[in-house]
Structure formats: structure tokens, C-alpha cells
Design brief:
Layout: H1 2-21, E1 25-30, E2 35-38, H2 40-46, H3 50-53, H4 64-80, E3 84-91, E4 98-109, E5 115-124, H5 126-172, H6 178-203, E6 212-215, H7 216-231, E7 235-241, E8 247-250, H8 252-269, E9 274-285, E10 299-308, H9 315-320, H10 338-348, E11 352-358, E12 362-370, E13 392-396, H11 400-412, E14 416-420, H12 423-432, E15 439-443, H13 451-461, E16 466-471, E17 487-491, H14 496-508
Parallel strand pairs: 7-9, 13-14, 13-15, 15-16, 16-17
Antiparallel strand pairs: 1-2, 1-5, 3-4, 4-5, 6-8, 9-10, 10-12, 11-12
Bound molecules: adenosine-5'-triphosphate and magnesium ion.
Magnesium ion (MG) binds next to helix 8.
């Protein structure tokens, strides 16, 4: 008998050990749904002592609806004798946050095979689910981004030609020529189209940003009166700006664009008035920081929150929020590019953005911009007035129509222009020249030989040559070539006027 008792105690110890250390939640209930066993961690999850729960039913620990549902499933299992795998969303009394549980339940049988209850093992899969959803979302954004970038790239080339020639036409036709108006209309439509491609490029993170260390509060203060006007009479603007805000690395114009787009959306969500609150604070993300989003790496950030008291969003809208052309607004009211642009700019600035929203209560956008430690040193360039010149230029562009436009525009400005349709062509031409050229204007992406390789080769012969790169599409992960002295960049599509200005800037820069 003593031996039997010893064996029983050992088995109990084993069982208790097991229950205390298993990372899943373990429980058993009887025919009347009363707990006959539960693991310590489950009692903790319920936020009640184990002794209090034992002998009580699900109604003691769950809200009525959930308890009823659980008992209905358990009845089924006890009647059919078939095990079930269920996913349940459960609120924890401790944190109050809903957790997704993956639960395996089986009937308990006595020695006669009679079912007397339920045994279950539940695993918390909340984290898993969240990561899965995040992964799917990232993949989707990536695919859409690539599509948008590709479309924008091709349109940029076309628009450079369309807008360029319409601009030249507008210049040449006299004001009282009826064709003048037509050219103006064409140019205006073309410029609206290039606004759209610009937004697409921003979304696909293929914009060339000019980041510099800046204080986000300063940027906000500068645009606050514009924001005020934008929001109208009915919407209040409140700012809660942290003193001694850390610096971030950003493109001023683009970061303002982000704020403006968010403000416009907030205004549209508050047709009957409300408050838009923009708050900034320094935030160190540490392992202890409760990162609900689970994807912000450790480090220092400037956290900007943009909160409105508008109509909020449904979960459906939230899940499509940053996709280009996703809009719930009426035709003509919104294109659905506002947040796509925001997303692209924030990502390209190495930042993070999330939205929280509840229908009828409002929306908060959270932005996290990484801190940068740098001395402020950004002298503004003086504006350039004149734009004509007489220097010798080599223009390399594989698209005939784009090249013809550029050559024509530059010749009109007085430059001496030599042209080439490819990198190879340019090298051949250059070898035959008796006098050196001052500036190479080249496309970045060309078949066979890229603009970068061409520059490398040409610099062997002419080390001092200045280079103006043009592209509608540059991989922003390697814009190192922009840091070289004597180098500048112009984004397609551009107007002849912009080209002339960039060119003069480059020529007048002292090396
Ligand atoms: N603050 C907000 N409150 C409620 N809904 C919002 C808010 N911001 C965005 N949304 C929803 O997200 C959708 C997409 O926004 P987004 O800015 O990308 O496009 P849009 O505002 O519809 O059009 P566009 O910005 O191109 O004029 C909106 O149509 C709206 O349904
Ligand atoms: Mg918008």
C-alpha cells in the first residue's frame, strides 16, 4: 500500500510539474462545464486564483456570450465524442487585450468509456496571426509598389516629350494665334498627369529625396497657418509639441506633404467640425516598449501622432488604407493617392506609419521617424536668374523623342549641343572631338551601358567633366553618385525651363 501511495504521489508531482511548465494553457471541465483542472498560467490569464475557479463554470471567467458559445461547442464534443480544433478570440481580464487562442478539445472518458467531460489545450497564437497578416500586407504593398513604379517610369518618358513640346509650342506661338490656347491646354493637362506620376513614384519609393537634418516641430510651425486655412472654420487645430525634440533626417518638402495629406483626410472625415491634434515626442524603442505594431526596430524615434475626431474607418477600409487608388470618396472627390504618397515618403525616410481607427470615434495616425544626430548645416542656395549659356554639352538619351526635345531646347538657349543615343555611341563621339565638353547630360538607365558606367569611362579622358543625370526612376538605395562633386540630378518628366535651371546651377557650382 505504501508503495502504491508513493507511486501516486510521484505521478501527481509529474502532472503538476507538467502543468506548471507547459507553455500552453491546459484545462478540463466536467459534464456540467465545471473546471476540474487548470494550469497555473491559465488561472493567471483569467486573473483569478486557481482555487476560486475550480468547481466553477465558464460563466465565472468569461462574458456570457463567449461562455455560452464555449459550452455549446463542449456539449457537441461530449455528445458526438469527436475532438475539435477551434480558434477563439478571448479577452484577458489582466491586460484587457483580446487574444486569439488555438484550442484543441477532446472528450474525457472514464474506465467504462463514458464521456464525463472535456480536456483542452489552448495556445496563444495572437502574435503568430499578427505577423502573418503583416507579412501578407507587406507583400501586397510591395507588389502594388512595383506596378506603380513601372507605370510611372514609362509615363514619365512620355510626359517629358508631351510637356516639353507643348511648352516649346506655347513659347513659339504668339498669344493671338488660336493654336496658342490649345498648346497651353495640352501643357496644363500634361502637368496634371505628371503630378499623378509623381505621386505614384512617391508611393513606390522611387523618388529622389533630398534629406537633411531637421526639427519636425519647426517644419510644423512653418506650415501651421497653411494647415489652419486648409482645415477651414469648423475644424480646430491643436498642437502638442515636445520641447527639445530630436532631429530627424528628412526631405522638408516631402515631410510637409505627409502632414498635409493627413490633415486633408482628417478634414474630410470631420464635415461637421472637430479637432485635429498633432503631437510630437521623443521616443526610445526598447525591448520593454510595448510595440503593438511589432515591427519597429529598437532605437530613438521622433513619434508624431495625428489625431482626428472624425467618422473613423471600418476594418475593411483600414486594411486597404495605403493602397494607391483606394478611396471611399465619391468620384471626383478623391483619387486615393493621398495615403499611398504618405506611405512611400515615410518608408523612404526609413520611418514607420500605422493607423488606429474606430468607426464614429476618430482616427490616429502614428508616425515614427528615426532620430539623427547631426549638426545643422544647410545653407540655402541662392536663386539663379539667368538660364542661357554657350557651353559645349553632350546629351546621351536612348529615347529618340526625349533626346530630340532636350537638344532642341538647349540649342534654343544658345548651347553647343552634341548628341548620342547610347553610352557606346557617346564614347565613340567623344573620342573624335577636338575640344572637350563641359557638361555631360545623360539618362541613368539605358540598355547595354548605364549612365553611371558612361561617366566612369568618360572621366578617364576628361576627369573634370560635370554631369547632369536625368531619370524618372532611380533606385534610391544607391544615390551615391549624387554626392560626387560636379554632379547634379533632374527628375523626369521635366520642362525645358527646369532643365535650363539645373544646368546653370551645375555650371556655376564651384568644385
Ligand atoms: N482621417 C481619416 N478618417 C477617416 N477615414 C480616412 C482618414 N484618412 C483616410 N481615410 C480613408 O482612407 C481612404 C484613402 O485615403 P487617401 O488619402 O489615400 O485617398 P483619398 O483621400 O480618398 O483621395 P486623395 O487623397 O487622393 O484625394 C479615404 O478615402 C478614406 O476612406
Ligand atoms: Mg486623401
Amino acid at each position: 500500500r505504501k508503495q502504491a501511495e508513493e507511486a501516486l504521489r510521484a505521478s501527481e508531482r509529474l502532472m503538476n510539474n507538467f502543468l506548471e511548465n507547459i507553455p500552453s494553457y491546459v484545462f478540463a471541465t466536467d459534464r456540467q462545464h465545471r473546471y476540474i483542472l487548470l494550469s497555473n498560467n491559465l488561472a493567471q490569464f483569467y486573473g483569478k486564483p486557481k482555487e476560486e475557479i475550480l468547481g466553477k463554470t465558464h460563466h465565472h471567467v468569461f462574458p456570457k456570450d463567449l461562455a455560452d458559445a464555449i459550452q455549446a461547442t463542449n456539449e457537441q464534443i461530449m455528445t458526438s465524442g469527436i475532438s475539435q480544433h477551434i480558434e477563439e478570440v478571448v479577452e484577458s481580464t489582466v491586460g484587457g487585450v483580446p487574444r486569439v487562442m488555438s484550442v484543441n478539445k477532446s472528450p474525457l472518458r472514464d474506465e467504462k468509456g463514458q464521456i464525463y467531460g472535456i480536456s483542452g489545450v489552448a495556445t496563444d497564437v495572437t502574435e503568430h496571426k499578427r505577423l502573418e497578416a503583416q507579412f501578407r500586407q507587406a507583400q501586397k504593398m510591395d507588389a502594388v509598389g512595383r506596378l506603380a513604379g513601372g507605370v510611372a517610369h514609362d509615363f514619365n518618358n512620355l510626359l517629358t516629350v508631351i510637356n516639353g513640346y507643348s511648352a516649346l509650342l506655347t513659347d513659339r506661338l504668339s498669344q493671338d494665334d488660336p493654336r496658342h490656347e490649345m498648346a497651353v491646354e495640352t501643357l496644363q493637362a500634361g502637368e496634371r498627369a505628371s503630378e499623378l506620376t509623381k505621386q505614384l513614384l512617391a508611393f513606390s519609393r522611387k523618388q529622389v529625396l533630398m534629406p537633411q537634418p531637421l526639427n519636425f516641430n519647426d517644419s510644423l510651425r512653418l506650415i501651421s497657418s497653411m494647415l489652419d486655412r486648409l482645415l477651414g472654420e469648423e475644424v480646430m487645430l491643436a498642437m502638442d509639441l515636445a520641447p527639445d525634440l530630436w532631429l530627424i533626417n528628412g526631405d522638408k518638402g516631402q515631410l510637409n506633404q505627409v502632414t498635409m495629406n493627413l490633415a486633408i483626410n482628417a478634414r474630410d472625415a470631420m464635415p461637421n467640425g472637430g479637432t485635429l491634434t498633432i503631437a510630437t515626442r521623443n521616443l526610445s524603442v526598447t525591448p520593454e516598449w510595448p510595440d503593438r505594431y511589432g515591427m519597429i526596430p529598437q532605437g530613438d524615434y521622433v513619434h508624431v501622432s495625428v489625431l482626428d475626431t472624425g467618422h473613423g474607418m471600418s476594418p475593411e477600409t483600414l486594411s486597404h488604407l495605403f493602397e494607391p487608388f483606394y478611396t471611399t470618396k465619391e468620384v471626383g472627390q478623391g483619387t486615393g493617392l493621398g495615403l499611398a504618397t504618405v506611405y512611400g515618403i515615410v518608408k523612404q525616410s526609413q520611418g514607420y506609419i500605422f493607423a488606429d481607427s474606430t468607426l464614429d470615434q476618430g482616427t490616429t495616425f502614428h508616425l515614427f521617424y528615426p532620430r539623427v544626430i547631426a549638426a545643422m548645416a544647410a545653407a540655402a542656395a541662392p536663386p539663379v536668374v539667368h538660364k542661357k549659356g554657350s557651353e559645349r554639352l553632350l546629351v546621351v538619351e536612348d529615347q529618340d523623342s526625349v533626346r530630340a526635345l532636350i537638344v532642341q531646347a538647349l540649342k534654343q538657349d544658345g548651347y553647343h549641343v552634341i548628341e548620342a543615343a547610347s553610352g557606346e555611341d557617346a564614347l565613340r563621339t567623344a573620342a573624335l572631338l577636338s575640344e572637350p565638353i563641359q557638361v555631360l547630360i545623360t539618362d541613368v538607365i539605358m540598355p547595354h551601358m548605364s549612365g553611371l558606367v558612361l561617366v566612369e569611362r568618360l572621366r578617364v579622358t576628361w576627369p573634370g567633366i560635370r554631369v547632369l543625370y536625368m531619370s524618372g526612376y532611380v533606385d534610391p538605395s544607391k544615390p551615391a553618385f549624387l554626392d560626387e562633386p560636379g554632379t547634379a540630378f533632374i527628375q523626369k518628366p521635366f520642362l525645358p525651363d527646369h532643365l535650363a535651371r539645373h544646368l546653370r546651377d551645375l555650371l556655376e557650382k564651384s568644385l
